[in-house]
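Structure representation.

___
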Amino acid sequence: MKKVWLLILMLFLAACGGGGGSTVSGGGTGSSTGTVALQFVDKAAKTVAATVPEPGFVRVVVTNPSLNGAPYKQVKDVPFGSGAVTMTIPVGTGFAAEAVYYSKSNTGLNRLSHYGAYVGTFTIAEALETSVPIDMDPISVSMDVSGGALYTIAPGNTYSVTATIGGGLQQAWSLAVDDARFTTTQHLATRIPVTSYTDINLPSTLPLDTPYTLYLQGEFFIKSAMLQAGESFTNWVYYYDDEVALKKDVLVHSGNTVIIPPADGIDPVVASFSVPSTIQSTTTVSPLSIVGTDNTAVIGYQITTVPTPPTWATPGTGGWSATKPTNFNASITPAHGVDNTVTLYAWVEDYSNVSAATAASTKAVVINDSPVVNSITIPNNSSSTNITPIANFTGLNFTGNASALKYLITDAVDSLTRLPIAPTPGAAWADTPPTSFTVTSITLLPGVHYAVPIFAWVMDGNNSISRPLSSYVNISDAPSVTAFTVPPQIASGTIVPISAFTGAATGTHSIAGYLVTKTSSAPAASAFAGTAPTEFDAGAISAGTRYLYAWVKDERDVVSLSWAVAVKFVAP
């Protein structure tokens, strides 16, 4: 494993919630494994290696539809503060990964907040680690109310409610409806979630000439593919509140008398306007959410880049839409490779008036079309500063053909901040992904172990450079223990038979000594024997489980790291 994460404590949660650790299911025969380091990335991969937000957890699901002839799935949960998730995966191609951020509510439900997925599929190679970014984005949902006489309401009218559901959620959802704003969440208001609702009825009696507001709360659930065996999707939820003002603009009384309320002169108001808080890679900004209020009804929505209110017009004309827009094309030519700030203005209209610009209706978004590194695979360990093989080095180009990308690997960090030193367009960029890299940030000393950060970069045709995707490689020319096999339990006595004890040296060196100890402290080179022992006497110990540590050294007296094995002594 390349990365040493500070938070390796996995939290065991209730069966209805996310559990610590991981579960694996499926997959055909095959024993070779590699690892994948899944890094969480803000929208459009502009902020790399984001940590799991507080308070919360991340669930990562890695799947393969046909691994050695059978479906494969591994689920892993880690807590707040983790910068990435490292998983051991069988060797194969065609792996997919997705993740959700969630927190525990005081009712025991898992409240979802963000969802992300790796773009495409990735490959796991034996004894190598693949670094894969997952773009995490706030979960997005919008609801729409339709039906006969949407703005011509009458007692007993029936309306339909549908939802546009973002990633990570299944299409079946639960709906709560009221004539007052919800102050709490309604869990399973609809006992059996469905994909849409067609029987939302108004009261049989309504006051004349006044608007009526439907308050809606949708409860959306995680898709089943992200659950472990025995978990219920109804315990993984995302809530979305909305409202729709229905106006009696035409009321038919006895005979043929028709009452049409006059213009009231009261402007509608944009109650809230939300835009992505993370940097956008294109000029199409998504997702957006607008909530408007009025004493009659909001009938139209519009987004512009100027602070002057648009002219009132019938929805469908003059830039007005009868439905809430969920995205907007900023219609600018952004400067390449830098942050471009665009201010968006949201507007709503009623039957005769347009809202005013306010702080709530004015939001800024940032657009940056820099390329991003999509993945890279490097070895877990190396016995020299020449790191090979390097594979799966790919990137995304937001300004043109991916073939226009150039590639670079570095290991230089700032001596104070320890952050990577960004390369310049004049650096030694390669037209094709490199398959090896020579580390220059260390001087390899005999037997010393180094954890060296490796940074992958891409540059597009406009000389815009990506943020780095980081990996670690452990570099050492020390020998290593390759096998140490003993029984898991000794029924009596303290003699432990050793059925296998082997080591491997690096480069042109050779194994010159073997040793077994009861402590994890590195032994002196003089304590080693020239041949591998076939048994070990644990000496004076009490009953219980003890750890044995196997070591090897080479002809330079460079000692390996230990190989630890637990042995239970029943009656020593």
Notes: The radius of gyration is 31 Å.
